[in-house]
Specification:
685 residues; alpha/beta; Alpha-Beta Plaits; Rossmann fold; five-stranded parallel β-sheet; 26 helices; globular
């Protein structure tokens, strides 16, 4: 069986495309293994072993089967998969084979759901969630007893589960750090785990404090989005003054600030007596295909999810009647109820009938006063909601209505023609913050965490202008005083990994191979690593997705040179490769550079890097010494010293002759370096 890396579906051996999502199962250059950040969930029934000892095997099965099914359903509902059942213990995995960017949060929400229903059913359970790096076997068959992941993250999760209080969810440090915003925690006693040098820090998960897909916003002023906010307010003024509906889509990567911009704009609209109604599409847990619009309707009608169905319908009917009159309300409220998941067994001949009632509602709302309908995260939306949104944008007329949608760029991959042909449509892209704005935001956040001395410029540079990444890095530095500002928190790696997993497999494979070459790479190096029939087409698609860019000038004649648009994409893509795959690819890159760069000495350091990572230390030493000699001749004595030292680290102690030679060169370079300052002072003006 083959596991689809996009959706997790099992497929028969020999299949070329996934039976569930249609993705290609043949990935050029695929290693069969990847290093990934995963969250492991362990659930165990308390006292079941001793109880089962006194039961007939059929009775044991009668208890375990529904328990296993319920735990599996909760894990899968939140986007995870069951790795194994061992008696009354269940192990679930989130983040593999597909990462969604919020996998630790999904794992904790699944754990809380299991805890709650187990308590209601009178079952006693211990649950733990732990997050960390693991080696993932992409072609494993978990349902057939084959281990899918391996690493200390699994062992630690098992130790945490054994130490968890009955009826509680215990999480490790990385899980806590990645989910402390949407989940409420209480510190727990560190766990003394077998085989661990130090106790494992742990927290008890109490409850979710934010809705699915939401993240509490940091109480610092919005920075660097003044132009975008001005653009939205300008459109709003025209909508309100000229009574001309408009659809705006704000595009941006995860964490770039779409929600914060929408919040600031919504507050501006409300301050001008505009009506603001907000709805969000979620990656899981949605109750209807039109969930974001359903939230609009329920807010307008005062309907709560906790209402009885008959009460909810009654509220909707009364609210619609106040807008459109009692005669029309009977028909339109019934259609709206069907659209938002409150309908009975009635049916309509076509979807247009339902969409017309939605249009009547929206036009009636806007006719009472300028109205903003906010649709958040529509990249998660069902296609039906996108159809509804475009229908409203094209057919609502002569009322002050602004439809504001927030989306990641992936929306355009699934819906390339989004917004095309509409009478009034604008796309507003959000790019990274400017260097000055990123620096300012980093300074504000570090000041909030009382960590002003933690190098805000390094935080801003590492985060590459992404506000969420700046926030996560600042929090990580504040909480871990010894952390390096260039280290990526798990939450940041997970978000970037999710963007990689959203790519078609062939494009993702190219990106991972390119990461081995470096931030700058060449088409010829990729061709050397793996044969691909459509390499140029794949590179073009990656450039269209704004992940790489082709550079006008190449350092290697006759070859195309590219660069990663974002260093974080490069770093996370490279981290995916296991050591063996890295060795093979670095060796291929080194061979390519040796053939193409000829006698140009500038390539020696790059060659040394690739030979070292390929495990070819003798070749790496040759290149390091050549690079050091060249640096010395150019009077870059400090660099020469560093390169000679790097070479010495790779020369075996048994090779005394080579060590003596490099040590002598190092001594000469150090002596010259010592006198560089004197030489500078003696240089004539």
């Amino acid at each position: 069986m083959l596991i689809c890396t996009r959706c997790g579906q099992e497929n028969p051996e020999g299949a070329r495309f996934c039976n569930a999502c249609g993705a290609s199962l043949v990935e050029p250059g695929r290693t069969g293994e990847e290093r990934r950040i995963v969250s492991v969930l362990f659930v165990d029934l308390v006292g079941f072993t001793s109880r089962a000892e006194r039961l007939d095997p059929e009775d044991v099965r009668a208890i375990l089967t529904p328990y296993h099914q319920r735990v599996r359903s909760e894990i899968e509902r939140f986007g995870g998969m069951v790795e194994k059942f061992v008696g009354d213990a269940v192990m679930g995995v989130f983040g593999a084979p597909t990462a969604y960017g919020d996998d630790p949060e999904r794992a904790v929400r699944a754990a809380l759901a299991v805890r709650d229903w187990a308590g209601e059913d009178g079952l006693q359970v211990r649950i733990a969630v732990n997050t960390g790096e693991a080696i993932v076997a992409l072609e494993a068959r978990p349902g057939h007893g084959e281990a899918m992941i391996a690493g200390d993250v699994v062992n630690t999760a098992a130790r945490l589960q054994a130490a968890a209080p009955v009826g509680a969810v215990l999480v490790g440090e990385e899980t806590y750090a990645s989910t402390r915003a949407p989940i409420e925690y209480r510190p727990a006693q560190p766990v003394k785990a077998k085989g661990k040098a130090a106790p494992v820090r742990a927290w008890l998960a109490l409850r979710a404090v934010a809705a699915v897909g939401e993240r509490p916003l940091t109480p610092v002023p919005m920075v660097g989005r003044e132009r975008e906010l001005d653009a939205l307010t300008g459109i709003w003024e025209r909508v309100a003054d000229e009574r001309r509906p408009h659809l705006v889509t704000v595009f941006g990567a995860a964490g770039i600030g779409k929600s914060r911009l929408a919040l600031e704009f919504s507050q501006h609209v409300a301050s001008r007596d505009g009506r603001v109604i907000r709805g969000r599409s979620t990656p899981y847990g949605a109750s209807s295909p039109y969930s974001a619009f359903a939230q609009h309707v329920k807010q307008f009608a005062g309907v709560f999810d906790s209402d009885e169905l008959t009460d909810a319908r009654a509220k909707l009917h009364v609210a619609v009647a106040e807008l459109v009159g009692s005669t029309a309300a009977e028909e339109h409220s019934a259609h709206l109820a069907m659209l938002v998941g409150l309908g009975a067994e009635e049916d309509v001949p076509d979807r247009e009938t339902l969409f017309f009632s939605a249009r009547v509602l929206v036009e009636s709302l806007a006719s009472e006063g300028p109205t903003l309908l906010l649709f958040e995260d529509i990249h998660w939306a069902d296609g039906s909601l996108l159809d509804l949104l475009e229908t409203l944008a094209s057919r609502v007329r002569e009322v002050p209505l602004l439809l504001l949608a927030l989306a990641r760029p992936e929306l355009l991959s699934a819906r390339p023609g989004w917004g095309g042909g509409l009478p009034a449509y604008s796309a507003l892209p959000l790019d990274r913050l400017s260097d000055d704005a990123a620096q300012e935001l980093a300074e504000r956040l570090l000041a909030r965490y009382e960590a002003q001395d933690r190098h805000p410029s390094a935080v801003a540079r590492t985060a590459e202008g992404n506000p969420l990444f700046i926030e996560e890095l600042a929090a990580s530095l504040a909480e871990r005083s010894t952390a390096d500002s260039s280290d990526l928190p798990t939450s940041v790696r997970a978000i970037v990994a999710a963007r990689l997993d959203a790519l078609p497999p062939e494009e993702r494979s190219v990106l991972v191979d390119a990461a081995v070459v470096g931030r700058v790479f060449w088409r010829g190096a990729l061709a050397r690593m793996s044969e691909r029939e459509k390499l140029s087409e794949l590179l073009g698609s990656l450039e269209e997705r704004d992940l790489i860019r082709r550079e006008a000038v190449s350092r290697i004649g006759g070859d195309q040179q590219f660069a990663f648009k974002h260093g974080l994409i490069h770093d996370v893509a490279y981290m995916r490769l296991p050591r063996a795959a890295r060795h093979e690819r670095h060796a291929a890159v080194a061979a390519y550079l040796e053939e193409t760069t000829g006698g140009v000495g500038q390539s020696n350091e790059a060659l040394a890097h690739h030979w070292r990572e390929a495990g070819e230390h003798e070749r790496a030493v040759d290149c390091l010494v050549a690079a050091a000699d060249q640096a010395g001749r150019g009077w870059a004595k400090e660099r020469a010293v560093a390169l000679y030292r790097a070479a010495l680290e790779l020369i075996p102690a048994a090779d005394e002759e080579r060590r003596r030679d490099v040590t002598r060169r190092l001594a000469v370079a150090m002596q010259a370096l010592y006198h560089v300052a004197d030489a500078e002072r003696l240089r004539p003006n």
